[in-house]
Amino acid sequence: MNAVLRYENLSAFYGASQILHGLSFEVPAASVVCLLGLNGMGKTTTLRATMGLVDRTEGRITLNGRELAGPTFRRAQMGVTLVPEDRKVFANLTVEENLEVARRPTGSGRDFSIAEAVEIFPRLGERMGQKAGTMSGGEQQMLVVARAMLANPAYMMLDEPTEGLSPSYVGAIAQSIEEARKRGIGVILVEQSIPLALSVGDAFHVVENGQITRSFARDEALADREGLERMLTVE
Ligand SMILES: Nc1ncnc2c1ncn2[C@@H]1O[C@H](COP(=O)(O)OP(=O)(O)OP(=O)(O)O)[C@@H](O)[C@H]1O
């Protein structure tokens, strides 16, 4: 069976409020699936539900046929990792220490090394001895993405990784996604930047009010870029 992360009719709740209403989609290994949509539509909740960080879910999420369930650490052990929007680094550790503690070698021969992470994010190489908490927001974002890659997950979820980043950093994020793909990692990208999404995405789902209302394969999205942009603009 080919590796796949599959969402089947996923609903999610915070207390009594139902946020997701039956999402179904899948993320094959080595593919990049983009969740697009206006603010508050349920994209972040989809990622949080994957990690077991919502109050309650219905439906199923499976990883290679095995149900993804239980507490967050167990899901991480099964191979999914989330880079949330809030850019948490260990502020009092240096960049190098942050990278070192994130390493989870799998011995598969495809593991990311710190040297490779630094090749993608040269800025981190220049700052190895600096306390991570003293770096700029953009630099901290590079660090959290590098840390996620060093954990060698099967699936990596990135929640608006380019928000507030300068264009040079956006390029580094795109490169890190490509590197992840080369190693067979599947990526879910929540992104407001259509150019970035179109540059890396294989499939695109528009999330509206907790449901997937439109889906596009890569060539459809490229052919109707303006339609996609219109759909994601507040009137
Ligand atoms: N902890 C929570 N408790 C209750 N409601 C929540 C909680 N977190 C999010 N929500 C609600 O869930 C809905 C979906 O939010 P979500 O963060 O998933 O949207 P999003 O599409 O990721 O948008 P954004 O880009 O703003 O993060 C919103 O109406 C939000 O108010």
CATH class: Alpha Beta
Mean pLDDT comes to: 93
Here the CATH topology equals Rossmann fold
Compute the separation of the termini in Å: 44 Å
Count all strands and give the number.
Answer: 10
List the domain count as a whole number.
1
Described by strand count, sense and barrel closure, the largest sheet is: 6 strands, mixed
Q: What is the number of helices?
A: 10
Bound molecules: adenosine-5'-triphosphate
- Order of SSEs: EEEHEEHEHHHHEHEHEEHH
Output the radius of gyration. Answer: 17 Å
Low-confidence stretches: none
Percentage of residues in helical conformation: 25-40%
Spatial order of the strands in the main sheet? 6-7-8-3-9-10
Computed structural class: alpha/beta
Percentage beta strand: 25-35%
CATH homologous superfamily label:
P-loop containing nucleotide triphosphate hydrolases
Organism: Paracoccus denitrificans (strain Pd 1222)
GO molecular function: ATP binding; ATP hydrolysis activity; branched-chain amino acid transmembrane transporter activity
Family: Belongs to the ABC transporter superfamily.
Keywords: Amino-acid transport, ATP-binding, Nucleotide-binding, Plasmid, Transport
Description:
Residues 5-234 form the ABC transporter domain. This is Amino acid/amide ABC transporter ATP-binding protein 2, HAAT family. The structure is a single chain. This protein has ten helices and ten strands. By secondary structure, it is an alpha/beta fold. The strands form two sheets. It has a six-stranded mixed beta sheet with strand order 6-7-8-3-9-10, sandwiched between helices. A hairpin with a 2-residue loop joins strand 9 and strand 10 (211-217). Helix 3 (95-102) packs parallel to helix 6 (137-150). The protein is globular and about 45 Å long. The protein binds adenosine-5'-triphosphate. Adenosine-5'-triphosphate is lined by residues 14, 17, 19, 37, 39-45. The site of adenosine-5'-triphosphate has 11 residues, from strand 2 and helix 1.
